[in-house]
Amino acid sequence: MPIQDNEQGATNQLKKIRSALRALRDAVILLNDDDGLEWWNQAAQDLLSLQTSDKGRCIFDFIQVPEFIKYYQEATTLNVDANANANTNTDIDESVHIVSWQDPNRYLKCELTPFGDEKLLIIYDVTRLQHLEAMRRDFVANVSHELRTPLTVLMGYLENFSDQPDMPAHWRRGFELMTQQTARMNRVVNDLLLLSRIEIEETHAFNDIDMTKLLTNVYDDAQAYNQEYKHTIHLHIDTYDGLYGSEMYLNSALSNLVINAIKYTPKGGNISISWTKTAEGCRFAVEDNGIGIAPKHLSRLTERFYRVDSGRSRATGGTGLGLAIVKHVLYQHEASLQIESVEGVGSTFSAVFPNDYVRSATIN
Ligand code: ADP
């Protein structure tokens, strides 16, 4: 094929790609190595009120939202590091959600893809999705709240009736089952309400937390729960460093991890709880030698109501919401949950808190 035909073909292809990008409803912006605007489509022009003369101007002249600037700088720096050392497992956030600087009721998702010295920025309007998400949150919170009062009445009467010494024997079993099931429903409702509260109050009453005290509480509660399991539980506190966060929610989350270790370990097992300092911050870990979890379940464990074995979870009084609560609380503290597990051998659940949330112990 003659060279001119090849060139003509490539030019036509390029034209088609440009027209497609121009027609996209999402804003697409091509940035140079100085973070200056190189090319943009119609949606980006409308969103940022761009003019032809803006070519070459820095993206931060147009988007001054702090979350966006932080995300952009991290994504570009981490990309440079990752290129320098291809074996490094760098954790780059895929996108950032921001509130539009022009309209507080509009939500945007920004996704930056560095390639070579240039970057491709795509901005999606996710307002509808955010509204749907808010509707889901409100619905769950309202239903849970509405169920609370009838449940309290039911539980009260069931307890009264069950205490009657002259209750016919053939009714007793039925009352026992009703009491068990209403207690279970009550636990589910309480966990759903807790989850809703955590989702709504994003940085709920954050304070400096004495982790030695908090972990001692978690350990004491675990020992009380351990009565029937008779595991050996050890608590290792290797640092007096504390955290900045929500004491109430962290207590709930870390207790959930410890109670799970107790529940999913056959009687007489070994459980080790630890609090240690690492280069990135501080790590809370619970290690058990229990039933373990097959790899295929690991990525889904923090979904609401996801259980490996529903029968076992229910038999131990589980609601299937414990790890969802853990995930949300850790998210609030910018911490990550790591799960290592081998079926039949045991599991280690760790919460890794970044240095920004660690409060160094002061020695008086
Ligand atoms: P549940 O109330 O069912 O315990 P969670 O959300 O706390 O709900 O946990 C979800 C599932 O993860 C559990 O049903 C169980 O299958 C599994 N799991 C959690 N912790 C452990 C553990 N330490 N060992 C084995 N399996 C676990």
What's the quick description here?
It contains ten helices and 13 strands. It has 364 residues and is α+β, with helices and mostly antiparallel strands. It folds into three domains: 124 residues, PAS domain (Beta-Lactamase, 2-Layer Sandwich), CATH 3.30.450; 72 residues, Orthogonal Bundle (Helix Hairpins), CATH 1.10.287; 153 residues, Heat Shock Protein 90, CATH 3.30.565.
CATH class of the largest domain: Alpha Beta
Helix content: 40-55%
Question: Distance between the terminal alpha carbons, to the nearest Å?
Answer: 82 Å
Mean pLDDT: 90
How would you characterize this protein structure?
It is built from ten helices and 13 strands. It has 364 residues and is an alpha+beta fold. The strands form three sheets. It has a five-stranded antiparallel beta sheet with strand order 2-1-5-4-3. A five-stranded mixed beta sheet has the order 7-9-10-12-11, covered by helices on one side. Strand 1 and strand 2 form a beta hairpin. The radius of gyration is 27 Å and the shape is elongated. The relative contact order is 0.07. The chain binds adenosine-5'-diphosphate. Adenosine-5'-diphosphate binds next to helix 7 and helix 10.
Task: Show the helix and strand layout.
Elements: H1 3-23, E1 27-31, E2 37-40, H2 42-48, H3 66-84, E3 96-99, E4 107-115, E5 118-125, H4 127-162, H5 169-200, E6 207-209, H6 211-225, E7 232-237, E8 242-245, H7 247-263, E9 270-277, E10 281-288, H8 295-298, H9 310-315, H10 322-332, E11 336-342, E12 346-354, E13 358-359
Parallel strand pairs: 7-9
Antiparallel strand pairs: 1-2, 1-5, 3-4, 4-5, 6-8, 8-13, 9-10, 10-12, 11-12
Helix pairs in contact: 4-5, 5-10, 6-7, 7-10
The structure holds adenosine-5'-diphosphate.
